[in-house]
Predict the 3D structure of the following.
Amino acid sequence: MDLFLDCEWADVLASDLVSLALVSLDLQHVFYAERDPLPVDPTPWVKTVVYPLLDRGPTAMSEAVMTRQLRKFLASVERPRICYDFGADRALCQYVINGFQTSKPDEPVPADLRWQFFEDMREPMVRWWGSHPEEQARRHHALVDAHALRSACLSLCGI
């Protein structure tokens, strides 16, 4: 099953996770989590654009809980293939799967996890944003952006 990934991060190196989203091709499987606590020193852009979009509430998770929940989610999907368009997204997702730096959750790491990189998604994404102005205001929310990536990939495949 293809899962479309997007992450948001707080730093210029794209290494300090803020949020992570995965959306399945059939839209039946959705994972969304925000880090709690949030990184304390985000860039000004992240602080003014990304942070105001966050849902918080039950989506805000400690690192250990986020890892546990993501592993459970991936285990619930048959032969997960994570599709992404930016290397930092894959690195951050793998970082969460691995348990950040210290977390050792009970759930096993999915053994059959596969990755698919999509290059040159800029134009399909621009077209998707242009045809979905209602979502444009929430651009840079990881879940909205994961849906955009899914739709852009589908349009490239002619679906």
The mean pLDDT is 90. The two ends are 16 Å apart (CA to CA). Residues 142-156 form the longest helix (15 residues). Helices lie at 44-50, 63-75, 87-97, 122-131, 133-136, 142-156.
